[in-house]
Design brief:
The protein is built from 11 helices and 5 strands, in the order ααααβααβαβααββαα. With 283 residues, it is an alpha/beta fold. It has one domain: 3-Layer(aba) Sandwich (Uracil-DNA Glycosylase, subunit E), CATH 3.40.470.10. It has a 5-stranded mixed β-sheet with strand order 2-1-3-5-4. A hairpin with a 2-residue loop joins strand 4 and strand 5. Helix 2 runs antiparallel to helix 3 and helix 2 packs parallel to helix 7. The two termini are 36 Å apart.
């Protein structure tokens, strides 16, 4: 069997796992993450909610009427002072208030091209990401690439990826609420500087942090929300299941497929396309 035939069979198996029941185009969008996909441009909206769903959810601001811990205040100050992504990365690298950086190998900042119209936000680096310094490069990242390819997308000019936490938690444990709130100012500033048109929240940690939601991901997924980034700038955000969860629970891929169809329809209906002339910001 040739490599092309093997790739086609792998793509078909993914579609079967998805429970796919409709075609997106006359021809398949490609069988690999780097396959050509429909051109993507546009800038981040400030007020309008996406078509294809009713926006719900809260803002990404720190909950009102609660005292802000000094470490979070320091994170907010450092984040606000970053004028570009390079400065933000440096600020996060030097931020010493979290013990996570003492147990991790290296900071995992982002992958893709700054200015890509779609920004994916995950949970935290795993062991593979900690070694390579890039988000989603392990088994869940490989599944994510296949999911993106299934709707004609790929990392790079179209998709920019980061996590709520830049450091790997020991043993790949779930981030604590305190850790998520500590790094929230950096995530919000990251979104501001990357300037996507929309956000995809991968998993419960990302959804809970950026939507200030109490519901679990199974209740938040499959619909559009609005995230307030700063100064009343509102951005559409779609919550969906984390690829790592899909590896543990393959039956849930059918639900995830419908989420990605919703993303594809929004991209198509709103003519969201990649901005030209961007510089690759892989880390």
């Amino acid at each position: 069997m040739s490599e092309d035939q093997a790739a086609l069979l792998a793509a078909l198996r993914l579609q079967l796992d998805w429970g796919a029941d409709e075609a997106l185009a006359e021809a398949p969008p490609g069988i690999a993450p780097r396959a050509a996909a429909p051109a993507l441009t546009g800038t981040a909206p400030t007020t309008a909610a996406p078509t294809g769903g009713t926006p719900t959810g809260g803002t990404a601001a720190t909950p009102a009427l609660r005292p802000v811990p000094p470490a979070t205040q320091a994170a907010a100050s450092l984040a606000a002072g970053a004028r570009n992504l390079s400065e933000l990365r440096q600020a996060m690298q030097e931020f010493a208030a979290s013990p996570l950086r003492e147990t991790a190998t290296q900071l995992v900042f982002a992958d893709g091209v700054a200015g890509a119209p779609i920004m994916l936000v995950g949970e935290a680096p795993g062991a593979d990401e900690d070694r390579q310094g890039k988000p989603f490069v392990g088994a869940s990242g490989q599944l994510l690439d296949r999911m993106l390819a299934s709707i004609g997308l790929a990392r790079g000019p179209q998709v920019y990826i980061t996590n709520i936490l830049p450091w790997r938690p020991p043993g790949n444990r779930t981030p604590t609420d305190a850790e998520m709130q500590l790094f929230l100012p950096f995530v919000l500033r990251h979104i501001q500087l990357a300037q996507p048109a929309l956000i995809v929240l991968l998993g419960g940690t990302a959804a809970k942090t950026l939507l200030a939601a109490k519901e679990g991901i199974t209740r938040l997924r499959g619909r559009w929300h609005q995230v307030t980034i700063g100064d009343a700038q509102v951005m559409p955000a779609l919550a969906t299941l984390h690829p790592a969860y899909l590896l543990r629970s393959p039956a849930a891929k059918k639900d995830a497929w419908h989420d990605w169809l919703l993303l594809h329809r929004h991209i198509t209906e709103n003519t969201i396309t990649a901005k030209s002339g961007q510089t690759d910001s892989r880390h």
